[in-house]
Design brief:
Layout: H1 9-22, E1 28-35, E2 40-48, H2 53-60, H3 72-75, H4 81-88, H5 92-104, E3 108-110, E4 115-117, E5 125-134, H6 138-148, E6 154-160, H7 165-169, H8 171-177, E7 180-184, E8 190-194, H9 204-221
Parallel strand pairs: 5-6, 6-7
Antiparallel strand pairs: 1-2, 2-5, 3-4, 7-8
Helix pairs in contact: 2-9, 4-5
């Protein structure tokens, strides 16, 4: 008796990709195994912000962990090395090394007593949708999908359709978490059991980190 439709999570991920492409979501691109500091998301669907080449280059040229420094809310408050050190929770010498990195990327200008960061007014990607895939382990997939909401606008858990019943029995937990639940069968039919809520990234730091990771990938492919 068949107990599952897919032999591996890799097969399941490929089926998800096929479904996305069949839906003709041309405004979205697919990125695999994205690490935004909360675990590696299996897939992230990214929608590019129009006229965002400058933001893409700025974020894609620095360490992702520093990306939040270019947010208008934070960057505008950093006027000197001492303030930067306080914001980073580090020494002034370590802050100076960060300034050197930012200056090399062209997003910081330092004079004797002041520091100016070139903040990014609009993020390079206007929408991120994270997708976590598991054959049957609904508890594990829910935990990771919820973590992905640290950086993503939406987060989904997708299971093998033959193994979906235990997850459906716990549907209320997905609703409370705001995580969408779907399943796919071997014919690549997609079943939506609960639609993800759009609640925006829960962490500004992880949001900017994810944007920088994705910007770097785009830059490396030279598709700007």
């Amino acid at each position: 008796m068949r107990t599952q439709d897919f032999e591996s999570e890799e097969q399941l991920v490929q089926a998800i990709i096929a479904c996305v492409r069949r839906a003709r979501c041309r405004e979205y691109k697919i990125e695999l195994e994205v690490d935004a500091g909360v675990g590696i998301a299996d897939l992230v669907l990214i929608k590019r912000t129009p006229r965002s080449t400058g933001a893409l280059r700025a974020l894609g040229s620095i360490s992702p962990r520093l990306a939040v420094l270019l947010s208008p809310e934070l960057g505008a408050t950093i006027k000197d090395r001492q303030t930067l050190a306080a914001r980073l929770g580090t020494s002034e010498s370590a802050a100076q090394r960060v300034i050197a990195q930012l200056s090399a990327a062209g997003v910081a200008a330092q004079s004797r007593d002041s520091l100016k960061l070139s903040t990014v007014a609009s993020l390079p990607f206007e929408r991120l949708i994270a997708v976590e895939a598991k054959i049957s382990d609904w508890q594990r997939v829910l935990v990771q999908a919820y973590r992905n909401l640290q950086f993503a606008d939406e987060s989904w858990a997708v299971l093998d359709h033959a193994c979906i019943r235990p997850a459906i029995a716990q549907l209320e937990r997905f609703k409370v978490a705001g995580v969408g639940l779907a399943s796919i069968n071997r014919s690549q039919e997609l079943f939506i059991h609960y639609s993800a809520t759009t609640q925006g990234p829960m962490s500004q730091g992880k949001r900017w980190q994810a944007q920088a990771v994705l910007a770097s990938r785009v830059l490396n492919r030279r598709t700007i």
